[in-house]
Batch of 2 targets.
Target 1
Amino acid sequence: MIPLRVTSGCIGCGQCVMQCPTRCLMIRNGKRVYVSSENCSLCGHCFAICPVGAIEIFNMTADQCQVDIKNLQNIDTIIKYRRSIRKYNPEPLQREVLEQLVDFTKYAPSACNFRPLRFLCLSRHCMDEVGAMIAREMSGQFPKLPQQQDQLDIVFRGAPHCIVIYVESNHTHTGMDDAIITMTQLELLAQSKGIGTFWAGMLKTQGNLSAQIKQRINLQEDDMICGCLGIGMPALKYKRSVGRIPYHVDFLE
Ligand SMILES: Cc1cc2nc3c(=O)[nH]c(=O)nc-3n(C[C@H](O)[C@H](O)[C@H](O)COP(=O)(O)O)c2cc1C
Ligand code: SF4
């Protein structure tokens, strides 16, 4: 059984239903939400958005996962409160804001201090075309994707921009580690300023397989896409953090 429970406190507002990325919640008789499928990834977004804290995850209650949302400059708070944002205000961010965020990434660690990363910022027009290309190219694996992409923008989740981090072919051995660190820092920094982000993994996966997609975003065929971050102002606000089960650590002497 999925360790996710909708309690009797549910008021049937349906915010969790809208937010579930795998569409596994439904409202019964317009009154109570229930878990309608086993596809739950336990991401906790329903738990984090519920205005009355009526969902439990891994036996944890909303009260146990409160964070001081006004204090996002605190690193503990921002790590707990960061979520993959999948609902955006379509307004673009100012170019200076994006430039400042990217500028901060120069402080991230880099293997041998090579600093090989290159950045692209895709606009919505480009994302519409690339999203459709990705959906078409992945339709063998996911037959419904082209239609879903058309209706819901599964690839870019409605974000107004996507930052692509890539390296040229002579830096593929260290670029990926640098990029993952950089994306992580960039995401936390953005979310500490109230800007939403999510890892647009489909562009990384399919983009690295497709000469057409690389061409559309001005990359050389042997460039390696290391990470893609959808970014923009969120059109929703989570109320709390999420319940997570801790990783185990073995201590060796
Ligand atoms: C490498 C990677 C790729 C991801 N790709 C996608 C993606 O393509 N679309 C998406 O909506 N979320 C994507 N995510 C977000 C995960 O689904 C998300 O991190 C997870 O469900 C936990 O939720 P949280 O980030 O809100 O804590 C990706 C995350 C990672 C780390
Ligand atoms: S935990 Fe995530 S996947 Fe599971 S029901 Fe809630 S929102 Fe949906």
Note: The chain has two domains: 4-66, 95-232.
Target 2
Amino acid sequence: MLRFLRAYAQNFLNSRLMDERRSLPPALISEFAEAGLLGLQVPRELGGQNLSHTDMNQVFTQLGAIDANLAIFCAVHNTLGIAPILFSATDEVKSCVLPRLATGQALTTSAISEPGIGSHVRGMTTRATRHPDGSYTIKGVKKWISLGGDARYVNVFAGLRDEHGRSLGITGFLVDSRTPGFGIGPEMLTLGLRAVPQYDLTFDNLRVPPSALLGAEGDGLTTAKAAFMGGRAVLASMTMGAAMRSLELAQRFTKGREVATGSLAENGRIREVLAEAGAAIQAVETLTSRIATWRDEGQDVPEAWYFCAKILGCELGWKAIDMALQVLGARGFLDTNTVGQHFRDYRLFRIFEGSTEAITVYLGTTLVRHPDQFAKLVHQTRPAATVLRLIDQVAEIGADRPDDAAAQHMHAAVVGELVCWTLLAMVTSQAEAESPMHGYTAAWTEHQLQQRLRNAQLGFRRSLPTVTEFDDHVAAFAGVIGDVDQRRWPAEEWRADPLLR
Ligand SMILES: Cc1cc2nc3c(=O)[nH]c(=O)nc-3n(C[C@H](O)[C@H](O)[C@H](O)COP(=O)(O)OP(=O)(O)OC[C@H]3O[C@@H](n4cnc5c(N)ncnc54)[C@H](O)[C@@H]3O)c2cc1C
């Protein structure tokens, strides 16, 4: 697969054209299916590749380095789409659907987000109702669904009610998009990832049979979590591929470039920013490969590890891409430069499948409420003694929970971030003897943790402006910049989003 992807990139791919046309090349689906890329973890007897998590990481790092559109296309199909079916559909449904998906005869995705909810999944308003004959009807609207207009099978998550209107909890359903009542809304014109379109989906009393159920009634969030946690680690692997590619180009450039101090490659400041990006990439790689190894060994991996991979993988990876763009100077700003395209495409990764802020606050809140879970995480690896001392200080900050709600959110964000850096420092400290670069990476990661700890200990004593005070402050901008809302763009969706009016 890796060989296929490298040859495909060199000989057939034109990322620029794909971006411009906002679509994947027509032959891509069948070629990717033939190479096994559409059934990465589907069992062999159902037409898939049955890849280990370690191998899957490698495939996604490769895809991520080539083009985020290809990577997201494969990730949506394999992790958002196939994984919930693999975990939770009946054997009969699996044997009917999975061979079709693995061989590219059909695509699949998941629909969770709605116009009114994104990060707050429990607030979803799409409703499913169970009928006496065991079938269900689904009614509601989903938004931003990648491949939503192309997928034959969509995992739809909805709040289920029984025949008497009693709530049974969020439940997953495998919906065939050919079912009457399945509607496809307009394509979203996104800033990046232009070749993998997103659509609104509407379900107008769409009826599905009992076999459409994914897992048990009310267990939808368990199904979604089981599938999407792995997806979060995959996002980190893709971002690392793009960050590696960007750093490779930046390093090449510095070697040939003369600046006022001489060779750019010899400039201390530039060596420092490049080395830091290299350390960030190596740290996240160490983390994702550790998670994959644990999963391949059948170990239970607490969700904090996946959150850490998603948060730091996507944040540090994008920062490394931004750094490469900066080092490339004007060349970095060219739209025809791979690094510029990565910069645009990978910006999304900090937002979707749990935005950094939402999952950092969630992680921090969980660990503040259940400090025993933090202790368990620490026992999962045997970190260096210096890191162990820092871990005690992180636990102290976690225990110091404020009373006020807004202060609690800020405290949870600090704790969540500290926990992520703690986990990264734990895995990198274990690998520090492997090479001089691993030694640098371990020291850099520990330093990042120390800096954040110091910030947290120092605190910021000034209270926030109230929402009204800040609202008044921003409202006064109109006096400076006036009303500049553009009313319409011909031939495009022109109404302003109600939340932006
Ligand atoms: C290109 C693209 C593809 C997508 N594909 C899919 C798909 O295939 N299937 C699908 O179901 N969805 C998909 N989505 C939706 C995506 O998962 C959501 O956009 C994402 O979860 C964020 O939700 P939102 O946009 O409603 O942001 P909101 O939930 O409105 O959050 C806005 C911002 O508020 C902050 N925030 C939110 N919650 C908290 C919190 N608890 N604490 C602190 N700060 C917080 C964060 O900064 C966040 O970015 C896609 C989106 C895009 C742009």
Note: The two ends are 47 Å apart (CA to CA).
